[in-house]
Every structure is written in C-alpha cells, then in structure tokens.
UniProtKB/TrEMBL annotation:
<protein>
    <recommendedName>
        <fullName>phosphoglucomutase (alpha-D-glucose-1,6-bisphosphate-dependent)</fullName>
        <ecNumber>5.4.2.2</ecNumber>
    </recommendedName>
</protein>
<dbReference type="InterPro" id="IPR005841">
    <property type="entry name" value="Alpha-D-phosphohexomutase_SF"/>
</dbReference>
<keyword id="KW-0460">Magnesium</keyword>
<keyword id="KW-0119">Carbohydrate metabolism</keyword>
<dbReference type="Pfam" id="PF24947">
    <property type="entry name" value="PGM1_C_vert_fung"/>
</dbReference>
<comment type="function">
    <text>Catalyzes the reversible isomerization of alpha-D-glucose 1-phosphate to alpha-D-glucose 6-phosphate. The mechanism proceeds via the intermediate compound alpha-D-glucose 1,6-bisphosphate. This enzyme participates in both the breakdown and synthesis of glucose.</text>
</comment>
<keyword id="KW-0597">Phosphoprotein</keyword>
<dbReference type="Pfam" id="PF02880">
    <property type="entry name" value="PGM_PMM_III"/>
</dbReference>
<dbReference type="GO" id="GO:0004614">
    <property type="term" value="F:phosphoglucomutase activity"/>
</dbReference>
<dbReference type="InterPro" id="IPR016066">
    <property type="entry name" value="A-D-PHexomutase_CS"/>
</dbReference>
<feature type="domain" description="Alpha-D-phosphohexomutase alpha/beta/alpha">
    <location>
        <begin position="318"/>
        <end position="438"/>
    </location>
</feature>
<dbReference type="InterPro" id="IPR016055">
    <property type="entry name" value="A-D-PHexomutase_a/b/a-I/II/III"/>
</dbReference>
<dbReference type="Pfam" id="PF02879">
    <property type="entry name" value="PGM_PMM_II"/>
</dbReference>
<comment type="similarity">
    <text>Belongs to the phosphohexose mutase family.</text>
</comment>
<dbReference type="Pfam" id="PF02878">
    <property type="entry name" value="PGM_PMM_I"/>
</dbReference>
<keyword id="KW-0963">Cytoplasm</keyword>
<dbReference type="InterPro" id="IPR045244">
    <property type="entry name" value="PGM"/>
</dbReference>
C-alpha cells in the first residue's frame, strides 16, 4: 500500500472558467497551462457540500479524447489530497456520458460504496487532439449535470482561488488494467478502482429492453444494420452490446475503435459529419450499387447523442423522440405501464406535442440543456424526452443516451415486425416514419448553423431580432416583401421558463417568431462552442394534410428559410452567404 502526502499549491485565478451548458470547454492548449485544470477541479471540490468530497466516492472518466489520460491522473491526485475516499475510473479512462450517469445511480462497489458525483472529461461532439478541444463537467448524485446553483459557485470560486491541494507523490495508476489499487494518506486510505463500465451499462439496458426480441430482429436475414461510433467512446460498448449480446454481424460496426482525436473527424452524428455512415446508408453522393442496410445509427464523442437513419432515409431528431414516445408502451418493457409524461427542448419541433395531446400525456417544453429534463424526471413527471440536437433519452438515467435511442428504435422495428420476420416485406424505418406522419401530421424541420462567427456580430444580430419584436406590424410588412406565400407572425418573444419543480426562472432562452399557421422561426446562440459564436436558426412548419406530408423537407421549407435569413439580416451581420451545417 503506497503512502502519499498532501501539498498545498499557491495559484492565481484564470479568466473565463465559467462552465457553459455542458461544463468547461476549451482548447487542449488552454487546459495544458500549469494550474488551469487544477484550479477548476479545486473550485469544484470547494463548491460541493463537504460530505460529497471528504470520504466520498467520485467517478472520473470520459470520452477518451486527447489529454484525458493526463487529466485522470491529475484529478485522482487532487481527489486523494482533498480526502475523497475512492475514485472509480473507466478502463483506459473511457466511460460514455450516459454510462457515467448509470454508474452513479446504479453501481455498488465491492465494499458496498456508492458514488456521489463524477468528473466527466469530454467536449462531447467537438473535435479532439492536441490542437482541438477538451472539456470537463461535474455530475451530481442523481447522475445529472450539476445545477446552475453549483456551476455558479464553481465559477465564482475560480475567480478567487489562491491555492489547491494535490498529492504529488501519489504514483500514477495504470488505468489500462481492471482492479483496485489502495493507498494510504495522512487522513486514511484512498482507493482507485478501475473497471469496465460496459458491464454495468448493459445490465441496466437489459432491465429496459427485451434483448431477445431485438436479437431476433438483428439476426434475421431480412434485417441489416450499421452502427458508427465516429471513433468516440460508444465504440467501447458497441461490440459488447450489438455483436456479443444481440448477435449483429461484426462488419456492421463502423469506426468503433475509440481514438484520442476521433480519427481526425468531427464526432458529431449528423448528415454532414457522419459521412461514412451517410454514404453507406445510400444518402451520400457516391453512386455505389451496394444495397444499403435497413437501419443505421451514429453516436457523438461521448455517446450521448444519436442519429437514426433508415435505408436512404433520415429521421429528424424531433420526429425520433415523437415516434419513440408514440410506440414506447407497446414496444419497450420498461414503459409497459405507461408514460409519466414527455418533454422536449423549445427549439425541438412540435411533433412530440401532437403525440402528447393524442395520447393524453403530460407535456413540457423546456430550455435547451439536458438538466431541465432531469428536474422533471427526479419529480416523477417525465419518462421520455428529446432535443433537436440529436439527443434522446428517458428517466433510466439523467443524461441523454445514444445507445438507448438505438435500442429503442430497434425495439420498435422488432415490435412492428414481430409476426413478420418470416414474411415477405419488412416494415422499415421509412414505413414507420411515414405512418407516423399520416397519423399525426408532419413537422417539416431544418436547422441552419453558422459556426465560428464573430461574437460581436452574432450579438448584434440577436439584439436586432429582439428589438424588432416590439412591432409585429413592421415585421409582417417586411415578411410580405420577402415572401408573400408565408403566413403572418402572430406572436414573438424570448423564451422564458419557470421550472415547475423548483420554481427557478431561466430567461433569454432563444428568440421566437410564431406564425399563424403554426410555423416557427427560432434563433439562438450555441452554448457549447469553444471559439467565436455559433448562431443557430431553427425553421419549422406543420402539415396536417396527410396527402402533403411526403415532400422534400428543404423544398417545403424554402419560403420560411428565405424569410429567416432576410429577417435576421444574416449575411449583413455575419458576412456569411451560406450556413456551415444544415441538419
Ligand atoms: C449539449 C447539451 C444538450 C443541448 C446541446 C445544445 O449537447 O447536452 O442538452 O441540446 O448541448 O447545444 P448548443 O450548441 O445548441 O447550445
Ligand atoms: Zn455528447
């Protein structure tokens, strides 16, 4: 048993350590500055109640991006010095964000211990590598991201910090081997427990889904499947779940070896960045005559996001959550006794609203950011939720869950084909979506992203959109000049949310223009970028008439897109004639 001592290090504050929507995200080179990570970690320890530090069990892991391995060792040494009792580390520092949430909520250590929180080392869907992004966020005992009251405290601590504690003589722990290493410090024992979290994660998935039914589908010769981890942490789970447990072919896994730089790619599961999968699914530009698989899905770096594709068919995330909610009770054992409620983020399309109304379910519209769902779930008010930003999940944990979403879709497809796997024609992803539109109507939807825009220009553009809201008649005059074929704006505001559980109010959560026919334009600044500003424009139009739900989405939305770009003076403010990404 190694002995260690505790050193008090003098430090001075760094500017800008304010955690955003999902923690602190900066370039790796920023994190590599002496004391930078240490200041943030100590500020976090100082923001937590003492009993969640002293004697506590804390998880430290992430998506495996560049600098994670160094960060794990630094945080471990600081945890020991701050009298944390033990840290739990994922094998090779890998643990998906949903798996961290599951581990906090479910795992019981060999000595009966339970975790009270986690440092998650990820910048989610941002690229990784020595010149790219690193990130860190803290999750609490419920398995969800720290609430604003805690992140505000962390930030305020970073502005006054003058010292941190570290056990410099604690040897580095070999995180490539499973096992517990024990040490002894001035205040008692300290353990580092390295384990493979896929075991705990799969155990949880088995309590939610009917693995036998999914296996039947995945092993049926009629069904073909493809999963792309984009070299993120989902790769550490994919083989175990899809191949070993569910019988998928090993060749159905794409980019499933986790890499520190995600193979040089952008680990964001959308039609722009998941290029290889998009090609394979027949949605790309190549004219390959290989028949695409029936089902395809991708994950982001930390495996909380998902993209769902059918053969030559894209499922929008807004439709995906609505379809999962509409089919959950019949298809997924965990929901067999009914849904407590459903929720979506404000910019997500209203497809879920229609399902909620039809099925008489409690419904909530919350600001962007998963933590708002967590509150509803802790209060037993919400079972399924989703966001347009490729996030879908349920109250089994307090993060969105990319692999859960895939298993949910596979469950629905298995259910729709349960008497049919020997028959002629498979009910496909496309069939399921078109059937949904025919029943509930279709929300045509697209999002335009302008990445890395000058921050000042982005602010001015947003300010102009807010100031225009004071005169809707002027707005409507302008719109008529741009396009005479869109309906009138009947209301416009900045979205504000009062949390029904804790009463807290979140203001300035996105600028909305609401049209008479139910169409919406929403403008927001991203809270997850690391350089400049990203402007997001969300464009949505509802079509109830089932004979008109089959149009190409960009065609159907062209008039509204035109209005959105001219109304906001996008090109004037940003100098951009086209968005960086369209989803
Ligand atoms: C993270 C959060 C999501 C949120 C998204 C928004 O992924 O976990 O809950 O929807 O950020 O990102 P944005 O860049 O639009 O602020
Ligand atoms: Zn993510």
């Amino acid at each position: 048993m190694g002995l260690f001592t505790v050193t008090k290090k003098a430090t001075t504050p760094f500017e800008g350590q304010k955690p955003g929507t999902s923690g602190l995200r900066k370039k790796v080179t920023v994190f590599q500055q002496p004391h930078y990570l240490q200041n943030f970690v100590q500020s976090t320890f100082n923001a937590l109640p003492a009993d969640q530090v002293k004697g506590a069990t804390i998880v430290v892991s992430g998506d495996g991006r560049y600098f994670s391995k160094d960060a794990v060792q630094i945080i471990t040494k600081m945890a020991a010095a701050n009298e944390v009792r033990r840290v739990w580390v994922g094998l090779n520092s890998l643990m998906s964000t949903p798996a961290v949430s599951a581990v906090i909520r479910e795992r019981i250590g060999a000595d009966g211990s339970k975790a009270t929180g986690a440092f998650i080392l990820t910048a989610s869907h941002n690229p990784g590598g020595p010149t790219e992004d690193f990130g860190i966020k803290y999750n609490m005992g419920n398995g969800g991201p720290a609430p604003e009251s805690v992140t505000d405290k962390i930030f305020s601590n970073t502005t006054t910090i003058s010292e941190y504690l570290i056990s410099e003589d604690l040897p580095d722990v070999d995180i490539s081997v499973v096992g517990v290493t024990s040490f002894s410090g001035p205040e008692g024992p300290f353990d580092v427990d390295v384990f493979d979290s896929s075991v705990d994660y799969i155990k949880l998935m088995k309590t939610i889904f009917d693995f036998e039914a999914i296996k039947k589908l995945l092993t049926s010769p009629k069904f073909t499947f493809c999963y792309d981890a984009l070299h993120g942490v989902a790769g550490a789970y994919a083989k175990h779940i899809f191949v070993e447990e569910l019988g998928a072919d090993e060749g159905s896994l794409l980019n499933c070896v986790p890499k520190e730089d995600f193979g040089g790619g952008h680990p964001d599961p959308n039609l722009t960045y998941a290029k290889e999968l998009v090609e394979r699914m027949g949605l790309g530009k190549s004219s390959s005559n290989v028949e695409p698989p029936e089902f395809g899905a991708a994950a982001d770096g930390d495996a909380d996001r998902n993209m769902i594709l059918g053969k030559r068919f894209f499922v929008t995330p807004s439709d995906s959550v609505a379809i999962i909610a509409a089919n959950a009770v019949q298809s997924i054992p965990y929901f067999a006794s009914g849904l407590k409620g459903v929720a979506r983020s404000m910019p997500t399309s209203a497809a879920l609203d229609v399902v909620a109304k039809n099925l008489n379910l409690k419904f909530f519209e919350v600001p962007t950011g998963w933590k708002f769902f967590g509150n509803l779930m802790d209060a037993g008010m919400c079972s399924i939720c989703g966001e347009e930003s490729f996030g879908t999940g349920s109250d089994h944990i307090r993060e969105k869950d990319g692999i859960w979403a895939v298993l949910a879709w596979l469950s629905i497809i298995a259910f729709k084909n349960k008497d049919n796997l020997g028959g002629d024609k498979l009910v496909t992803v496309e069939d399921i979506v078109r059937q949904h539109w025919a029943t509930y109507g279709r929300h045509y939807y697209t999002r335009y992203d302008y990445e890395n825009v000058d921050a000042g220009a982005a602010k001015e553009l947003m300010a102009n959109l807010v100031s225009m809201q004071s005169s809707l008649s002027d707005v409507n005059k302008l719109i008529k000049e741009i396009r005479s074929d869109v309906s009138e704006v009947v209301a416009a505001d900045e979205f504000e949310y009062k949390d029904p559980v804790d009463g807290s109010v979140s203001k300035h959560q996105g600028i909305r223009y609401l049209f008479g026919d139910g169409s919406r334009l929403v403008f927001r600044l991203s809270g997850t970028g690391s350089v400049g500003a990203t402007i997001r424009v969300y464009i949505e139009q509802y079509e109830k008439d089932s004979s008109k739900t089959g149009r190409d989405s960009q065609d159907a939305l062209a008039p509204l897109v035109d209005v959105a770009l001219k109304l906001s003076k996008m090109q004037e403010y940003t100098g951009r004639s086209a968005p960086t990404v369209i989803t």
